[in-house]
């Protein structure tokens, strides 16, 4: 069965974005440290790089390694939309969970206006294929917590103080085991967790 994997960047105090959905406060380090991280990222998770940026990483035609489908909330979708990208991950099947996004926004994007749990359960039952990437945001992660099988947390050495929490839902302690960890000189760590 396919897995739902929450792959996301997080501040030390548990925020995936600032109050206005900003993510530019996440530090990558100096030039050498940034280059090290930017070399690792497309080698391990090429499909998580938006379609419009794949050329600059030299992975325009790279096959997907881990995910072939993504699910995101409206707050995660809007920054790309504001920049003119109605299909930010054209190399993936894209689902946007939203009650306010028009259903005909782009033929490559499926807008789901209710029951994200039902959607994810159906996606996970599909035969073959790669895993499903939960791209964000925090409220959607809270709603989908019962179905999250794995976490890939990119932890950045910064405190945000306020913003959008990594999971914004009901109190529901859920245990995960560490399965892998990669550390970079910049202070960024990428930790993989599997649900117990």
UniProtKB/TrEMBL annotation:
SUPFAM superfamilies from the UniProt entry: Dihydrofolate reductase-like
Start and end residues of each Bacterial bifunctional deaminase-reductase C-terminal domain: 3-175
InterPro entries with a match to the protein in the record: DHFR-like_dom_sf, RibDG_C, Riboflavin_Biosynth_HTPR
PANTHER family: 2,5-DIAMINO-6-RIBOSYLAMINO-4(3H)-PYRIMIDINONE 5'-PHOSPHATE REDUCTASE, DIHYDROFOLATE REDUCTASE FAMILY PROTEIN (AFU_ORTHOLOGUE AFUA_8G06820)
Protein name in UniProt: Dihydrofolate reductase family protein
The species this protein was found in: Streptomyces durbertensis
